[in-house]
Amino acid sequence: MTASALIAPASDRELVLTRLIAAPREKLYGAWTQPELLKQWFAPKPWRTPRAELDVRPGGASMIVMAGPDGTEFPSRGVYLEVVPNQRLVFTDAYTEAWQPSEKPFMTVVLSFVDEGGKTRYTARVLHWSVADREAHEKMGFYEGWGQCTDQLAELVGAPKPTA
């Protein structure tokens, strides 16, 4: 990850990653919204994503399972808040499904896909419920993990490694 791959967060509870990817935004959006595609890139290797259930509509639930190298699974449930095809996805883990509150909300993710000179400006803004949650996410390897996943996403859609 390069320093130029970052843009300034809007608050002390936010982490941001942005990349310019040489692919149409429709392909990137599709890789986020089609379970069979998402499973191919979503976890940083050697992790994997064995299951993904995505009801991509406002109020629709998602359940994504990541598995570590030892096979231990980590399910993550959430709800889509906003869906603008090929432009924007907003989802949160504050709810698990059917507007049922989660035990411990951690983040809301705002993804944007913007045309930029024949490429797509991909931006992931991750808003946390507290500064402590943001710090924990950063220490867990947010930039490295999300950066590697973004490289894998670009590879899946046939693009070279993204630039800042």
Describe the structure.
- With 164 residues, the protein is an alpha+beta fold.
- Helix content is 24%, strand content 36%.
- It contains 4 helices and 7 strands; from the N terminus they run βααββββββαα.
- A hairpin with a 5-residue loop joins β3 and β4 (73-84).
- α2 (35-41) packs across α4.
- The protein is globular, with a radius of gyration of 15 Å.
- Mean pLDDT is 93; it is low at 1-5.
Task: State the gist of this model.
The chain is 24% helix and 36% strand. The chain is α+β, with helices and mostly antiparallel strands.
Give the SSE map.
Layout: E1 14-21, H1 25-33, H2 35-41, E2 48-54, E3 61-67, E4 73-84, E5 88-92, E6 107-116, E7 119-128, H3 131-139, H4 142-156
Antiparallel strand pairs: 1-7, 2-3, 3-4, 4-5, 5-6, 6-7
Helix pairs in contact: 1-2, 2-4
Number of helices: 4
- How far the N terminus sits from the C terminus, by CA atoms, comes to 9 Å
Strand tally, please?
7
What share of the residues does DSSP label as strand, in percent? Answer: 35-45%
Uncertain parts: 1-5
Strand order of the largest sheet: 1-7-6-5-4-3-2
Radius of gyration, CA atoms, in whole angstroms: 15 Å
One letter per element, helices H and strands E, the order comes to EHHEEEEEEHH
Give the overall shape. Answer: globular
Task: Summarize this structure as a short list of keywords or feature phrases.
164 residues; disordered N terminus; 36% strand; alpha+beta; 4 helices; 7-stranded antiparallel sheet
